[in-house]
Amino acid sequence: MKTEKLFKIKVKVNSEFYERAVPARMTLLQFVRDECNLTGTKEGCGIGECGTCTVLLDGKAINACMMFAVEADGHKIETIEGEQRGEKLSDLQQAFVDNGAVQCGFCTPGMIMSARGLLKKKSKPTDKEIIEAISGNLCRCTGYLPIIEAIRAVARK
Amino acid sequence: MINEFEYCRPKSFNQAVSYLAEFKNARVLAGGTDLIVGLRAGLESPEAVVDIKGISETGSLKVNSKGIQIGPAVTLNQFIETRAVRKNYSALIAAAESIATFQLRNRATIVGNICNASPAADMAPALLVFNAEVEIAGPEGERKLPLSEFFKDVKKTALKKGELVKSIHVPAPHIGTKSGFLKQQRIKGHDLAVASVAAAFCLAKNAKNSGTLRIALGAVAITPLIIPEIPASKKEIDKAVKTAVSSARKIIAPIDDVRSSADYRAEIIKTLISRLIPEVLS
Fold this sequence. Notes:
heterodimer, A: alpha+beta, Ubiquitin-like (UB roll), DNA polymerase, domain 1, 2 domains, 5-stranded mixed sheet, 5 helices, 5 strands, elongated, B: alpha+beta, Uridine Diphospho-n-acetylenolpyruvylglucosamine Reductase, domain 2, Uridine Diphospho-n-acetylenolpyruvylglucosamine Reductase, domain 3, Enolase-like, domain 1, 5-stranded antiparallel sheet, 4-stranded antiparallel sheet, 14 strands, about 30% strand
C-alpha cells in the first residue's frame, strides 16, 4: 500500500511554533489536539454547527473542524490554553467563573475564544454584537444569559 | 473520517486550471465550509483538493464606480465589513449577514456560496437582482456568464471540467436603486432558508416614481430563480406586489423537505414578496 503523502507545516499556536509533517486530510482541530497536545479545544459536531472547536486564526474566530491543518501553514492560531498566564486566569475566564457561565463546561473553550475574537475587534461591544459573536456556539446548560453577562462584564472593565 | 486526497496549492489561476484538468475528480477549496462537511459525510471523495487561497488575486475585493469585483477567496465577513458595499448594495449585505454563524462567515466565501449551487444559496437571489456576472477561468481561456445562466440543477453549475470561478462582477446599480433581502428560516444561524427573496427597484431616468423592479427567489425550485423585470411605480405598490406574486407562482416548483412542506414554501414566498416590495418601493 502506498504511504500517505505528508506536508510540512509550521504553525504558531499561542506562543509556540509547531513544525510537523501532516496528511492533507488532517483538520486543524486534529492538529491542535493530537499534534500539539492542546486538548482544551473540543470536538462536538465536527461539521461547523456547534462551535465548541472555535479557535482564533490570525485573530478571527473560526471552527477548527472546518479547516485543514495544511491551510494553517504560516498562520497564527490561538486556543483556550493561550488565555491563562501561569496560574492566573484571563479576564474572560475569570468572568465566566464569577458569573456562573460554566456548567458542564464543554462549550466553554469555544465560547471564550469567540468572545476573545470579538473583544480583539471591538473592546466595547454592544449586546447585539456579543450575541452575534457567539451565535455559532451552542450551550445546552446555561441558557446563555450568564455567558452574555460574563462577556459584558469584561467589556465594561 | 475523511478519505485521502492529493492537496494542491496553485500560485496562479492557470496552475489551478491545470490541476483541475489533470485530476479525474478535483474539488476547489476556498472557505471549505461546504466541502469539508461533504468530505466528512462521505458524500464525496475527490482525488485532489485544489486550495486557491495561494493565488494572490483570490482575496481581492474591489469596489468602485463600475461596481464590485469579488475574488473567490473573499469571505462573507470581509464582504460585510466593507463600508463601500454597505452603502449601495443592501440586499447583498442582508443576504451575507443571514448566512450561518459568525465563525463560519469568517471562512465561508461569497463565490463558494454560488459554486456550491444549493437551491437555497442565500447570495444567489441577492446577486441575481443586481445582474451579477461570473468570470470563469478554464483550459480554453476565460469566459463570462450572467449569473442567471450559471445554475443548472441542484448542486450543478455551468462550470465545465477544469474550470473555476475567477471572480463575480456586480455592476454598479443606477443612482437611487433600493434593494433588500428577506429569508424565512426556522432558527437563526443554524438553518438554511425555507424560502428567500431579494428585490431591487431602479428608478427610470429622470423619473420620480416609476422604474423597474427585479425580484429573485431562493429555495423554491431546483435552482435560484429570477422573475422577469416588472415595470413598477412607487404610487402603485399593490399592483407591483400582485404582478410579482403572479409571476412567481408561474415559475416556482417547491419541494417537501426537512425544513418545510412544498405548500408552505409556495405560501411563504408570496408573503415574503409582499413584505419586501413595499420596502424597496418606499
